[in-house]
Amino acid sequence: MDIRTATHNDNTPIIELLRVSLGESLIPKSEKLWQWKHVDNPFGKSPVLLAEDNGQVVGIRAFLQWEFSNKGKTIKACRAVDTATHPTYQGRGIFNQLTGRLLEEVTADGIDLIYNTPNSKSAPGYLKMGWESWGKLPLKLNFHLANSRKTVLVNSDWAQVQKLVQTIETGDPTFSEGQTRLVKGYLNWRYRDNPLYHYQFISDGEHYLLVYRIKEGKMGREFRICDLFTKTELSKNAIKELGIALNQQIKISGARFSSFSGLAYSKQNVLDMGLLPILRVGPLVTLRKVSEHFSPMDQVWNWSLGDLEVF
After folding, report:
1. DSSP letters for the chain
2. What is the pTM of this model?
3. Same domain (yes/no): 49, 173
4. Do 183 and 265 lie in a common domain?
């Protein structure tokens, strides 16, 4: 069995392996999604390794390149994402071999940390390989029990906020302290061009941009506030206007509850989401130290839900 770097010509067998191993589940597998996620990413192309046996791709391991900002400094990261082993080859240690080899490669490339949000089944395996549990992301929840009807929302026209998007991405890098570094093209790639989820926004086109999506789940329809960006400190009128617009969209959506990162919520004074306390009920975050000069567990993180969503 050979381990090698994936090339563009491997996209079709990669998608076939993902389908055979994982099925479509909640995230459909397609070359369009792979291209957007692992090639068009503004942080760079994903490092991807394959396990091959007699010319057949039987294992895959991909790390999604990412960057965070901390006090004006760039933290180079990767997110452990797509992995699969052909059912016939499972139990032979292919996952560990590919992950270990890929860790060696990204270490040589100057990556500071690896992060991911594993489920309860995969988390123990990552912890055995040196990942550490940061804990569950705190969430600020607000319930809207009066909402019952489900209305199709009018699609947001992202062309209307392109000037504001450019301003946000070229602004003060300390704005995203402890969050994703807002490089040029990130917001359009992450939200407007996302082939998996449909993202909407609330904005006055000049001062603020709130990005959200509607998610169906066991608790009912969720109004998920993925990110909130403000160009400057908002006036009282702007805060009031945003609050009214948000409440209107929540009502129109028929969402039973809204959610926002508790880390981001505690550091803003724009949104008022009721009196319920912030609870650690979000996704589990695990971190893997890569650079000997960087300790991810000692950082002050301010992740948004958009930073940690699985896609």
Report:
1. -EEEE--GGGHHHHHHHHHHHH-STTS---HHHHHHHHTS-TT-PPPEEEEEETTEEEEEEEEEEEEEEETTEEEEEEEEEEEEE-GGGTTSSHHHHHHHHHHHHHHHTT--EEEE---TTTHHHHHHTT-EEEEEEEEEEEE-TT-----PPPPP-GGGGHHHHHHHHTS-GGGGBTEE---TTHHIIIIIT-SSS--EEEE-SSSEEEEEEEEEETTEEEEEEEEEEESSPPPHHHHHHHHHHHHHHHHHHT-SEEEEEHHHHTT-SS----SPPPEEEEEEEEEEE-STT--GGGS-----HHHH---
2. 0.94
3. no
4. yes
What tokens does 196 get? 């998996």
Domain region containing 64: 2-111
What pLDDT score does 177 carry?
82
CB under 8 Å, gap of 24 or more: what pairs does 167-173 form? 167/231, 168/209, 168/229, 168/231, 171/231, 173/69, 173/72
Nearest alpha carbon to residue 91 among 115, 125, 120? 125
Q: Are residues 265 and 144 in the same domain?
A: yes
Splitting the chain (311 residues) into consecutive groups of 10 residues, what average pLDDT does each group show?
94 92 71 94 98 95 96 94 94 95 96 96 94 98 78 85 94 73 96 96 96 94 96 91 96 95 94 96 97 95 96 89
Is position 307 within any domain?
Answer: no
Q: Facing residues of 222 across strands?
A: 215, 257
149/273 same-domain check: yes
Return the CATH number at 69: 3.40.630.30
